[in-house]
Write a structure and sequence with these properties.
Elements lengths: L3 H35 L10 H5 L2 H34 L5 H13 L2 H12 L14 H26 L3 H8 L4 H29 L3 H7 L6 H10 L4 H35 L13 H25 L1 E2 L2 E2 L2 H4 L14 H30 L6 H13 L2 H4 L2 H11 L13 H23 L3 H9 L4 H30 L2 H6 L7 H10 L3 H26 L10
Antiparallel strand pairs: 1-2
Length: about 550
């Protein structure tokens, strides 16, 4: 027993690093934002909470958030499950390329997605005849576009690993393909479907950039309403009430997702290895649906590229040449290329922080606790680092400004603040990529290494590193792509003379003039190309846990 204390002390000291980071740069800003709103002038104002939620703008934002998230989740799941079957179960030419196409939207900057759908749906766009620009339908389509990869990868990774013998036995007993799916496959997939749907609902409910660009002033979610209350109206009390509602909803959703994920892990562990099978006639419907989904994913991006190469219907590169300028009527303080350089520098710093912290958290949460209390603590730790994904980036960004403004943490003008905010967003994705790989390592190998005298660090290098190096590279690329496109918190924290590319694109959209909009199109193509290139390289690593929840 005494020999265990140095190991426990080392793990405790290791855990303090990410916990302190989370406490200082997440709990403190969010708590400060809430206290500033609910505890003004040194007295609690809890009695006004219901009055805030019952006001028409806030009530409408809550209702719109709920039903658009429910509808978005249902449609995304309905489309994602058959696509997961085609891309992870069938022997299909170009399957890996199609996977890359489907997963790319998830890491695209929200401003790029918003601009792409506006370009596709405006009256002069290819789908302008539908008259759904600036409507809730446009927002719904963008949410499905953005979150489809979550369902495809989460469900597909489990589907790929299912033992086919149970399905083959049911078919041999005379069951039709639909009966096999309903009685054998679906029960095995249900935990992963529930887990993916929970995360999709979370992402739909907290969408910011997409709703801000496509919804305008007609539609507002909790996220955009918090943005409006803090920036335009300076109503911190009302923003704090909405932030609390959002926090409670996120905790419930993450709790449900954690239960589903634990069941999914048990299914994956007990299942065999499936392998691919040949396409059959009964696969015609999911194949056709997959083709439509791929077209749905490609259409906005292709339209964005084409429109960026045209001015008044004439093919030209002038929109890209203008990226070296400050736009029409001095719309920008710095050229777009300078903003892109800023984005890369900040994203590299954010990725380094997210990966270091993500490795530590992944090592901790994949330990097999010896008691129920220890396992509960590890589960709570895992869930705590998922919270930044669901809390309003606006709340975090504004919280930074009002809490980290005096010594010893006077960081409002520090260049490190934006990388920290982006690292908070990327950290949960790093953990979700690394943790499954570490869990797949046989604990007996670590025990054998320790029995032979290897230190914990030596055991990690010799046992875990050969298993985890591909997921580690994938997590690094994933974090880099996400950081390049982060917009919510960065829009609060970026200095006017040191913006990132997503902030500049949004600024160009907000300034009138064909030149500025053309520059926004070209800048969006450049940013989308960068993130797509990074994700293309990551996809070649064939890490199934990347992007799965």
């Amino acid at each position: 027993m005494p020999s265990r204390w140095p190991r426990r002390a080392a793990l405790t000291a290791l855990a303090l690093i990410p916990l302190v980071f989370l406490a200082v740069f997440f709990v403190l800003p969010v708590g400060g934002m809430v206290l500033r709103g609910l505890h003004p002038d040194g007295s609690w104002a809890l009695g006004d909470t219901w009055s805030v939620l019952s006001r028409p703008p806030e009530r409408q934002a809550l209702w719109f958030t709920l039903w658009i998230a429910v509808l978005g989740t249902a449609l995304t799941t309905a489309l994602g499950v058959p696509v997961a079957y085609v891309l992870y179960r069938l022997r299909l030419p170009g399957r890996r390329v199609l996977r890359g196409i489907v997963v790319t939207p998830f890491v695209l900057p929200t401003v790029v997605v918003g601009v792409a759908f506006r370009t596709l749906l405006v009256q002069s766009g290819p789908l302008g005849f539908l008259n759904i620009d600036a409507s809730w339908v446009a927002i719904l389509l963008a949410l499905v576009f953005f979150n489809l990869a979550v369902v495809v990868r989460t469900v597909g990774a489990v589907w790929e690993g299912l033992d086919p013998r149970a399905e083959e036995s049911a078919a041999a007993l005379g069951a039709s393909p639909w009966q096999v799916f309903r009685t054998v496959t679906l029960p095995a997939l249900r935990p992963s479907i529930i887990s993916a749907a929970s995360v999709v609902f979370l992402f739909c409910a907290t969408a910011f950039g997409v709703v801000l660009i496509l919804g305008g002033t007609r539609y507002s979610t909790i996220e955009t309403q918090i943005y409006l209350l803090t920036t335009n109206l300076l109503d911190l009390r009302s923003a704090a009430v909405l932030s609390i509602v959002q926090l409670l909803a996120v905790v419930v959703l993450l709790w449900g997702a954690e239960i589903a994920r634990s069941r999914k892990q048990r299914t994956t562990v007990t299942a065999g290895r499936g392998g691919l099978r040949a396409v059959r006639f009964s696969d015609a419907i999911p194949l056709a649906l997959t083709g439509l989904v791929v077209l749905f994913v490609v259409a906005p991006l292709a339209t964005l590229v084409v429109r960026s190469l045209q001015i008044d219907g004439v093919w030209t590169l002038d929109n890209y040449r203008h990226l070296a300028s400050d736009g029409a009527d001095n719309a920008l303080l710095v050229p777009v290329w300078q903003a892109l350089d800023n984005s890369w520098r900040i994203a590299i710093d954010a990725t380094a922080m997210a990966v270091v912290l993500g490795v530590i958290v992944s090592v901790l949460v994949t330990r097999r606790g010896s008691t129920r209390h220890t396992r509960g603590l590890l589960t709570a730790l895992d869930g705590a680092f998922m919270l930044p994904l669901g809390i309003s980036a606006v709340t975090v960004g504004f919280g930074f400004l009002i809490t980290l403004n005096h010594p010893p943490l006077d960081l409002r003008s520090s260049p490190i603040l934006i990388p920290i905010a982006q690292a908070l967003v990327a950290l949960p994705l790093v953990v979700r990529t690394l943790a499954p790989a570490l869990r797949s390592t046989d604990e007996r190998q670590r025990q054998a290494a320790a029995a032979l005298g290897a230190s914990p660090l030596r055991a990690m290098v010799t046992v875990d590193l050969p298993v985890v190096w591909r997921p580690l590279l994938a997590a690094t690329g994933f974090a880099l792509a996400v950081s390049l496109g982060e917009f919510g918190a960065t829009s609060f924290l970026a200095q006017p003379d040191h913006p990132t590319l997503p902030v500049v694109i949004y600024a160009l959209i907000g300034h009138p003039g064909a030149v500025n909009f053309g520059m926004a199109l070209a800048g969006s193509v450049v940013l989308a190309g960068m993130t797509a290139l990074v994700m293309g390289l990551v996809e070649r690593l064939h890490v199934t846990s990347m992007g799965a929840f």
